[in-house]
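One example copied in:
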Amino acid sequence: MLTDFERQSMGGAAPQWNAILAARPARAMFSVLPAGWIGDWHENPAPQWIVPLSGRWFVETMDGRRVEMGPGEVSFGGDQGCRADTRGHKGHRSGTLGAEPALLLLVQMSGRGP
């Protein structure tokens, strides 16, 4: 996660606190979820940071928790290799909220976590 911050300068600017991720990003991609989109129960394809850039979306986890997010919020999807519960739910459910699409930035990590 975000640990081991070090005070460093970036490009000659005044020093700031930076944390370098242990696992390196494998790729970054943008995803547009149309208004009304629902992704039924599924796992994240890789450990990934999800950053909503516009619109709103939700994630519902197997324990019944639901989180709604929009621009300025960040989520980490690390539910790879989980087991289905007694209802057959595996991973998470997600979807858009409201009448506009959700534009997401996905930063997928190599390995099993950040």
Notes: Residues 22-109 form a domain with the Jelly Rolls fold (CATH 2.60.120.10).
